[in-house]
Amino acid sequence: MNEQDRQRQDRQQGLGTERAVLRLARPYLGRLVGAGLLAAGTELAGLALMATATWLLITAAGQPPLDVLTVAIVAVRALAIGRGVLRYTERLAGHDATLRFITDVRARVFATLAGRRTTAAEHTGDSLSRLVSDVEAVQDLLLRVLVPAGAAAVVSLLAIAGTAAIAPAATAPLVVGLLLAGVALPVAATALTRRTADRVAPLRGALAVDAVDLTHGAADLAAFGATRAALERADGRARELAGLERRLAAAGWAIDGLGVLVSGATSAAVAATALSAGVDGVLVGVLAVGTLAAVEVTLALVGAARQWTQLRAALRRVAPLLTAEIGDGPAADRETTVLDVEHHDCFVEEVTVRYRDGAPAALDRVSLDLPAGRRVAVVGPSGAGKSTLIGVLTGAVVPDGGRVTLGGRELSAYPAEQVPRLVGGLLAEAYVFHASVRENLLLGRADAGDDELTAATGAAGLLDWVRDQPAGWDTVVGEDGGQLSGGQRQRLALARALLARPPVLVLDEPTEGLDPAAADRVLAAATETIPADHSVLLVTHRLRGLDRYDEILVLDSGRVLQRGRHADLLDQPGWYREQWLAQEAAEGGYLALTVH
Question: Which end of the chain is less enclosed by CB atoms within 10 A, N or C?
């Protein structure tokens, strides 16, 4: 692809992105149009103020009777006050419409990111950059590009009409000046800043990734002696980003300088043409100052074009999240709701997953039956494929072979935003938000009452801690649960999963971070809390308490090595029996087992 084809493709993508944004903004179109009209009214009030004040000053120099100036004096005051009121109202209306729209955009972006079915999770830092910085580009597209452009167009047309009424001959230089300020300079600004601006948004995303790695991964980087390399990489990106922004600032300075020259030259040309046409001297002054004001308003298109150029890369990054359907199942099943599922029998049939071509299978023809009410535990060494099996079951990982069915339908047929309500629970690295205990729990089920919160936290072993806190349910847990210990954070996430009560409950290491005795108590209490007609998939490294489960799968290297009930597996030589003996010996129970 040559450079011209690449630029043509970029322009098409950019226009497609803007169309997608405007389609989503359609419910707020009335508010945005109102903000644009208020912006145009503000600029017209400023233009009229400059023209009226100029006429007043020049006329007052001839010391006419006061009644000749009265209307102009009142008009200047009214226009000055009106301009301020209109500007305030325009800002209020514009930001109200845009913030309402951005709320919907962020919700859609979040839902798309959360509902994606991919074989590899997107990096947290890049996702955060898309959700915050790139979404702000959508806001700027409306407030700093479309609204100023519309206002400038209205003011330019009315300025041309006013000039034609006073001095028709002066219309030509005014039109030329407005075209230079509103078309030529914006095109030049776009050309000067496009290539540099296209690199800024991805670089900001990469820098956000570096920031997350350096903060959350500081201990790991230090352990492997990689802190200096990570800092140097982040510092290099920061310097590159600063250089790009300086280049953009220099290009902006050059274009702004040209804009000042165009404004002055246009005003001089209009004044000279009006004088040669025999226009009264007072009106010539009005035309000259009015031209300066009109061209200045039109020069806002230069800023809009520069802003649009800088936003294009960010808009391209967020566009797929705005235009993608939430969920990727067949259109025919897109109307499916949770209530349409007659039963919640779940089956994993001969599933195979490979993360890279030619790599060993993470799962190799694994099957699992989870009819309603059945409870299955999955155990095995690290890297056995347990997390991949959970990903397949919850729709986060798309299998290369085999299938997953729920209620007689392919799991992929359900809208992705509904799958967690059907198959979900406590997954690895469950996120805890910087909010209160109550707010974190209500993410599981928003309509839960205090009695249900008490039951869930009691089963998770967190209730006593909540009652000991001065703020109780309103205790703020900090960013990512930073105010909690590891065990408390895990109990909070478990309580939220129990409160959600999906028909197929997945528990990934629910007692991680707890001492053995506490882990046994919590697992027993949680198991008793789960409704009898709900199926459970438990992934755990701890084997105590698994005698309550209908089946146990032993995974290793993506394959099922053993399967059966707890007692049966203890009677068979293999990984399960060896691990059981090792755990019992470590906890002082080996002698009791041998005597038995």
Answer: C
What does the block give as tokens for 325?
């359907």
The answer to whether 455 and 447 are in contact (CB under 8 A) is: no
User: Residue 361 contacts by C-beta under 8 Å, 6 or more apart in sequence?
Assistant: 352, 353, 354, 558
Task: Please tell me the distance from the alpha carbon of residue 388 to that of residue 396, in angstroms, as a whole number.
Answer: 9
DSSP assignments along 26-47, one per residue: GGGHHHHHHHHHHHHHHHHHHH
**d(C-alpha 289, C-alpha 486), whole Å:** 69
Q: Is the CB of residue 503 less than 8 Å from the CB of residue 521? A: no
pLDDT, tens digit, 9 for 90 and up, residues 536-565: 999 998 888 898 899 999 999 889 999 999
> Which burial class, exposed, middle or buried, applies to 331 when counting CB atoms under 10 A from its CB (0-12, 13-18, 19+)?
exposed
**First-to-final CA distance of the chain:** 75
Would the pLDDT of 16 be above 60?
no
For 208-251, the pLDDT digits (tens) are 778 878 887 788 788 888 888 889 888 988 898 888 888 888 88
Paired sense of beta strands 535-539 and 346-353, if any: unpaired
The answer to whether the CB of 395 falls within 8 A of the CB of 423 is: yes
The SS3 call for residue 242 is helix
Q: Under the phi-then-psi rule, with left for phi > 0, alpha for psi from -120 to 50, and beta for the rest, what region is 409? A: beta
Q: How many CA atoms lie within 13 A of 227 on its CB side?
A: 9
Q: For residue 332, with 0-12 CB atoms within 10 Å meaning exposed, 13-18 middle and 19 or more buried, which class applies?
A: exposed
- Looking at residue 122, the DSSP 8-state letter turns out to be P
**How far, in Å, CA of 526 to CA of 510, rounded?**
9
- Rounded Cα distance, 190 and 579, in Å: 66
Q: What is the mean pLDDT of the chain?
A: 81
Structure tokens belonging to residue 85: 């009121």
| Structure-model confidence comparison of residues 304 and 123, the more confident one | 304
Strand-strand pairing, 559-564 and 409-410 = unpaired
Report the chain's C-alpha Rg in angstroms: 33
The whole model's pTM is what?
0.54
Cα separation of 323 and 542, whole Å?
A: 44
**What does 348-394 look like in DSSP terms, one character per residue?**
EEEEEE-SSTTSPPSEEEEEEEE-TT-EEEEE-STTSSHHHHHHHHH
- Residue 331: pLDDT over 70: no
3-state secondary structure of 543: coil
145: β partners:
none
Q: Note whether 147 and 308 are within 8 A (CB).
A: no
What is the helix, strand, coil percentage profile of the chain, to 5? 65, 10, 25
Residue 595, exposed/middle/buried by CB under 10 A (0-12, 13-18, 19+)? exposed
How many whole angstroms from its chain centre is CA 582?
46
How many other C-beta atoms are found inside a 10 Å radius of the C-beta of residue 169?
15
